[in-house]
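Hello, quick one for you while I still have it in my head. A protein chain has come my way and I'm curious about its shape. Can you walk me through what the tokens say about the fold? No rush at all, and the record is pasted right below.
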Amino acid sequence: MYYPSTRSGKIVMRASIAKTSSVILSLAISGCVTANQPPSTPPPPPPSVSFDGTYTGTIHLTSSSVSGNPLQANWCDTPPQISLSVQNNRFTYHLTHPNIPQGMSLNLNAIVGPDGTISGSDVNGAAQMDGLVAASQMSGHINGSACSYAFTAQRI
């Protein structure tokens, strides 16, 4: 309000303007502070788990459907030593069958999940691999159409 005829009216107007200016200045400053604050940052991603390394151990035959034929009884044989090189939580295992004519072998591609579970298969899906990595020990199974194996390996 403005009362030009009285001196006290001018004082009221000045006090009112000063109060209004103070409120506007406070709002402007608080608005700038809010507008200039950086957006909240998302939480950091969980640490990735790495099972990378070289694992060596043994593999052995657990079952065979070709053992009934004497000419094929040893077709599931494979060298008993296993060596797996895990990189980026992935590896390929070359399963050889030296007693099969033409030396048949399978390449099994596997992934180690964040919880240590192993899952994989050959390109055609005829053989599957599963297992677990816990601490520095790896163990699992390979199941094919005619032969099944169990393996254990230790990280070196």
